[in-house]
Amino acid sequence: MRDVFVRLLTDFLSAIVFLVLYLATGNVVLATSVAIAGALAQVAYSRVKGKPLGFMTYASLALVIVLGSATLLTNDPRFVLAKPSIAHFAIGAIMLKRGWMLRYMPPMVAEIIPEYVTIAGYAWAALMFALGLGTIAVASTGDLKLWAFYVSVVLIGAKFAAFAVQYIAFRILVTNRIRAARA
């Protein structure tokens, strides 16, 4: 579990640096420049240390450079604030693959209610697209406090809530199917 949080922190470090600097100084050019430099330094450090870099690291670097450049050219932080939406859209697109979720389910669930697992996979894709659109909507306001709340509370809370609903629904569905098979 610790590794997951370290990877997430690594992937979002440049966005965190941007947000902290921008909130502290109000200087979009400084915050963006440091975020881009930090992302480049992060990749260089990993390469020097011989650590393997995954697709997400390179994708994150590319996004920081492209969106950061747009922010620098326009002096508008909304481009950098929209970055999480791209990740949500990409994940949502991957989740559109039929049955993607089956491999993550306990064997009992995958065997007893595979059709519901497939439906849940599509529901997760829809959630990712909705959260991505919400991120763009909030970023377009330019309100950093609202954006920080949305990214840290709404995005995470929606995923936890969806997971809880799915867990309860799957338990009920599996239990009902087992009871029906015995009867």
Automatic annotation (TrEMBL):
<feature type="transmembrane region" description="Helical">
    <location>
        <begin position="79"/>
        <end position="96"/>
    </location>
</feature>
<feature type="transmembrane region" description="Helical">
    <location>
        <begin position="147"/>
        <end position="170"/>
    </location>
</feature>
<feature type="transmembrane region" description="Helical">
    <location>
        <begin position="12"/>
        <end position="41"/>
    </location>
</feature>
<protein>
    <submittedName>
        <fullName>Intracellular septation protein A</fullName>
    </submittedName>
</protein>
<keyword id="KW-0472">Membrane</keyword>
<dbReference type="InterPro" id="IPR006008">
    <property type="entry name" value="YciB"/>
</dbReference>
<keyword id="KW-1003">Cell membrane</keyword>
<dbReference type="GO" id="GO:0005886">
    <property type="term" value="C:plasma membrane"/>
</dbReference>
<feature type="transmembrane region" description="Helical">
    <location>
        <begin position="116"/>
        <end position="141"/>
    </location>
</feature>
<keyword id="KW-0812">Transmembrane</keyword>
<feature type="transmembrane region" description="Helical">
    <location>
        <begin position="53"/>
        <end position="73"/>
    </location>
</feature>
<dbReference type="Pfam" id="PF04279">
    <property type="entry name" value="IspA"/>
</dbReference>
<keyword id="KW-1133">Transmembrane helix</keyword>
